[in-house]
Amino acid sequence: MTVESTEDYKDLMGRERPGLEDWEKATKTPKVEQERLLEHILKKNGSSLYLQQFGLNGATDVHTFRELVPVCNHEDILPYIERIVQGDKAPLLTGDPVIELCQSSGTTGGQPKVYPITEEDITLRVRFQEITRSIFNGALPKQERGKTLFFMNLLPAQKTPGGLLQLPASTSVFQREVSKAVLQFTSPKEVILASNFKEATYCHLLCGLLQRDQVIKIRTTFASFFVMCVRYLEECWPEICDDIVSGTLNQTRVQNYSVRAAVLPYLRPDPELADTIRQKCLGKGWKGIVKSLWPKCKVVQAICTGSMAAYMPILNYYTDNLPVLSGIYACSEGFFGVNMDPTCLPEATSYTLIPTVAYFEFVPLADDQQKNNHKDQIVDLTSVKEGHEYEILVTTISGLSRYRIGDVLKVVGFHNATPKFEFVRREGTVLSVDVEKTTERELLLGMTSAAKLLEDHLGLRLEDFTSTGDLSTSPPHYIIYLELKNDESAIQDVPTDILEKCCSTVESSLGDMYRSWRFRNFIGPLEFRIVQEKTFEKMMAVALLRGATAAQFKTPRGLGPQHSHYLEVLTNGLSQCYVSQSRPQSPGF
């Protein structure tokens, strides 16, 4: 049954339109909406133990709030969260009861962070998803209504000592969304809600291929997860074809009873379809395989900004440059922004922060050294300047007050009267072995250029990469781990002259301080360590054992002592090492 033939879907779309109209209205008067929202939040949470210590005394205005309440990070609220985890029912961070706890993936910082969630926050997040879905569906031609192949698997909730459910933000919201919108998807909800990544992905692929002529959109969380799912298809397509021929479900690949029971009704023997899929998968190389297998697919929906930009070349390779829609700006702390122009190119993606979902403030990054000391430098949503970069602060209904998410955004324009932001990077450094500070953006620029060299000269694709600083050598130096792939044959050692060019390319993209210190030999030569195929997949497997979900996992671009579990995997997968033989030009310090 196609999506457009269901009354449930029509009713869902009808409910979404008024919400979108409300958003449009709010973006025309953001200052009024922000002041109104902050007043609402402070009326709810002003009596919390956290806010009481700052002497608000019932004040709900912007000036008093910003004058008395300090900027905070997770360490500042951790004692309150630990009490909530243990079952303390006092109004610690929120006036409303905490109904569940949301956890981050922990893949960047090493350990998951936990945040309280109230009923009102859940309602906001679910509504956010419904309205953004309306925006994205509107980007497709009306005559092209069909189904979505939704690559998703969710981590089951855990019970805290205090009896609350603790689960990733994606699990909490998608559980509710799937119940309402399951008819849009090629997979039954039992597959979308399954916690085993490989079982869920196998079934997503199988169900998606059974309905290949109905798929008009492929959706997932991150570009990296999309690539991961296609790589899994490369491994398991022969068994999928066998299942389609026989009308059965592989017992080894899928063992969960409820998942099997939900998928089996989709199957019937179809040797002709299996032969079509087999011929496409046996073709020379997998360039454009997604478009070939799902010929009516018009768009891929996945976050492709920030660190995810590194996966765009390989995503484009698999999809033959299908449009990619990077839809929302969201994190464990909340759902905050939406791409109001879904048809834009991925590199032009910007997010409009919705004035009614959180109170936003911004720390200008023009003078990084003083941003912690001068609260008067912090500006509100309507005072940011186009072309400038800021660190974002949020105040939410779930008890975060002037909270540092750790993201750096750049103002690139306005939607009505509300700023549009481009995601730039995570705040802080990725690498530092001396006084230099290398950002994720600098590293990404260098590796993007190096990847092009490898592809142009050797036909090798960069599958993934990460880095670390080695302080055990004198002088200390950077190490970049990278995984490469070649469709035509097994990878041999990469010629050293190409690796030297890659090292030079990366170092030329790093900051002035790095290049100056390298030139003066205070920092040692850059080292490339090439790892075997599927090493980064093993890294993700370690993250899953530590509580992350596959859909939530993001490869950390900089590894430190807290990532020893990842460094062990990379060391065990080592295939080739190369140390640069040249030094970058001095920037003139």
Automatic annotation (TrEMBL):
Annotated ranges, domain GH3 C-terminal: 443-557
InterPro entries from the UniProt entry: GH3, GH3_C, GH3_M
Xref: Pfam families: GH3 (PF03321), GH3_C (PF23572), GH3_M (PF23571)
Domain GH3 middle intervals: 351-426
Family of the protein in this entry: Belongs to the IAA-amido conjugating enzyme family.
UniProt-recorded name of the protein: Uncharacterized protein
Source organism (scientific name): Riccia sorocarpa
